[in-house]
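Prompt: May I have another protein with tokenized structure?
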Amino acid sequence: MPELKTLHFDLSKETGHQQAVIAWAAQPTVRHRWPELALLYHVENERQCTAAQGAARKRMGVKKGVPDLCLPVQRGGYAGLYLEMKRPGGHVREEQHWWLEHLDMQGYCTAVCYGWEQARDRLIAYMEMDREREH
């Protein structure tokens, strides 16, 4: 697996780790092995905004605690994968625990990843699961 040059990501912040895992997943050698990683996306729900913008976003369905990354690809009997990204030493909030638990109950694989390397390793493990969906 190719090494990712993380020098241009601020790995002191969660956003830097998330950018690094997205960059890893976009590498041609990674995409060649797992083309389904093109479906990996970020759930944008942490933007700073005014109270009016926040109210409008809430009416549009934005919810606190939704995991950061989603891979809508079936593997190993799971409907897809949700990853909550944290920088090393970060903490999972109560509403994030709620979402992870409830997504798990709905048949999704979920994980909290402390750093981009854990997210990369979790993505690899998930993609290497049996492709057949259990019924």
The CA atoms of residues 36 and 73 lie 7 Å apart.
